[in-house]
Design goal:
alpha/beta; 5-stranded parallel beta sheet; 23 strands; binds flavin-adenine dinucleotide; NAD
């Protein structure tokens, strides 16, 4: 009854982009309504993305450790058994802690959650249709579109989330598949493929590009391919899926490599070929909202769309589909709306693959740096030469720097190895300050830590690594 129908800001979408924008705007004194139709806040990331996938990655790592590696440490565990129901329940509990956490933050910051489907109308009017059909009309000063993205499907293989899975179904398969086919060897395919492989499934990855994780540094994709193959993933690169379908409890996939036809059969298939912007409730053509070639909402560096006082952030604006990118864009949009001089930039956007070993990268790949025409230097240091990595029995991988030969400025950093998701942050900070290989190489790093690999790789780029 006491709802504010003319708030300063209505945010459509309660994912990492939308909820962070809402909180930041509220911190800056704006009255904020955030519209979300899902029964929980947090969007793709918290409900069916980052968080549940990391929960299952963590559990399946423990399982594989107990099964295969504990005995190397002198730990004999008899009768290790998988309780998949418990593993999936724990994942759901982790998700619930996070969605409730966002709800708590909304209350704390006095952000109103309007539960329902939001529709943007002309003149920045936002209509919200609740589950019971009730309509509420908001007339805010500003609107942020944070409607996220949805998985792309293959025309001949529509998702049923029983056998033909998107990320949603692949996070809750009720049994360990005998054979899981993963179409698309990107981040999502490799992470979820690794989960089910560790739990006992045969996993076949089919990738259209010449390498898995296309777009990454060549040394990284080569090393990752080698390690994942050794772990038991069957990887087919440069392979085009041409057809397929479900037949009862089986799925057939037809593919082609070098002109040769291939055929795969499995009980489950995960289609992880990419995601596209979701424009639920946003009729771009009718509103005159400018879209890019991939259907993404076009924005400037302050996250403004082509419509006055309408901003857009997150997966809906394209670029790298990452939660931390969405969050940062949300902060920028909120600050611009509050009258600050904020501006988004993407130079050092980190990207992580949470397999084991992990992969973490920021900045230019070696090939991209060479293509700029600048003289560059490359420094590499392996985890196998690091005492801490040896004591953890996790010696696969390396850290690689790409630097400007004239100034030693760090242009890119590419890591594959244990805990590199956390190791990368130091380098992203260095790059934000336009730091050099000397800055990192001459900084004291505690011994024995994995971070010494980062220091040594920076020294390697200067031609003076010590431990190799
Ligand atoms: P979303 O999170 O998609 O949120 C959009 C929200 O808007 C949704 O909740 C939707 O219900 C709501 N919505 C849409 N339209 C309307 C409407 N009209 N009215 C009301 N509500 C609406 N990124 C990482 O950085 N790290 C990871 O480890 C990672 N892992 C991932 C794993 C998987 C399996 C997947 C699928 C993605 C992963 N991502 C990861 C990507 C990450 O989830 C997205 O980049 C992020 O969620 C984008 O945030 P967003 O706010 O733009 O959109």
């Amino acid at each position: 009854a006491d709802q504010n129908l003319t708030p300063d800001l209505v945010v459509i979408g309660g994912g990492p982009g939308g909820y962070v924008a809402s909180i930041r705007a509220a911190q800056l004194g704006l009255s904020v309504v955030c519209v979300e139709f899902d029964k929980t806040l947090g969007g793709t990331c918290v409900n069916v993305g980052c968080i549940p996938s990391k929960a299952l990655l963590s559990s399946s790592e423990h399982y594989e450790f107990a099964l295969k590696h504990a005995k190397d440490h002198g730990i004999e565990i008899a009768g290790v058994q998988l309780n998949l129901q418990q593993m999936l329940k724990r994942k759901d509990d982790v998700v619930a802690q996070n969605t409730k956490g966002v709800e708590f933050l909304f209350k704390k910051n006095k952000v109103t959650w309007a539960k329902g489907v939001g529709t943007l109308k002309a003149g920045n009017v936002v209509e919200v249709k609740a589950l019971d059909g009730a309509l509420t009309t908001y007339r805010p000063k500003h609107v942020i579109l944070a409607t996220g993205s949805v998985p792309m499907q293959l025309p001949f293989l529509p998702f049923d989330e029983e056998r033909v899975l998107s990320n949603v179904g692949a996070l809750r398969i009720p049994e360990v598949p005998k054979h899981l086919i993963v179409i698309g060897g990107g981040v999502i395919g490799l992470e979820l493929g690794s989960v089910w492989r560790r739990l006992g499934a045969k996993v076949t990855v089919i990738e259209y590009a010449p390498t898995i994780l296309p777009g990454n540094d060549d040394d990284i994709t080569k090393e990752a391919h080698k390690i994942f193959t050794k772990q038991g993933l069957e990887i087919h690169t440069a392979t085009k899926v041409t057809g397929g379908g479900r037949n009862g409890s089986m799925v057939t996939i037809e593919a082609e490599k070098d002109g040769q036809a291939m055929r795969f059969e499995a009980d489950y298939v995960l289609v992880s070929i990419g995601r596209k912007p979701s424009l639920t409730g946003v009729d771009a053509a009718a509103l005159g909202l400018a879209l890019g070639t991939r259907g993404e909402i076009v924005v400037d560096a302050q996250m403004r769309t082509s419509l006055p006082n309408v901003f857009a952030i997150g997966d809906a604006v394209g670029g790298k589909l990452l939660a931390h990118k969405a969050e940062e864009e949300g902060v920028i949009a909120a600050e611009v709306i509050a009258g600050h001089h904020a501006k988004m930039h993407y130079h050092n956007m980190p990207g992580v693959v949470y397999t084991w070993p992990e992969i973490a990268t920021a900045g230019l790949t070696e090939a991209e740096a060479r293509a700029t025409g600048k003289a560059i230097k490359v420094g590499k240091f392996p985890f196998s030469a690091n005492g801490r990595a040896r004591s953890m029995a996790s010696t696969e991988g390396f850290v690689k720097f790409v630097t400007d030969a004239a100034t030693d400025e760090i242009l890119g950093c590419h890591m594959i190895g244990p805990n590199v998701s956390d190791l990368l942050s130091e380098i992203v900070l260095a790059m934000e300050y336009r730091g050099t290989a000397d800055d990192v190489g001459e900084t004291v790093h505690s011994h024995p830590t994995l971070s010494e690999v980062v220091k040594e790789a920076a020294l390697a780029a200067l031609g003076r690594a010590i431990h190799i």
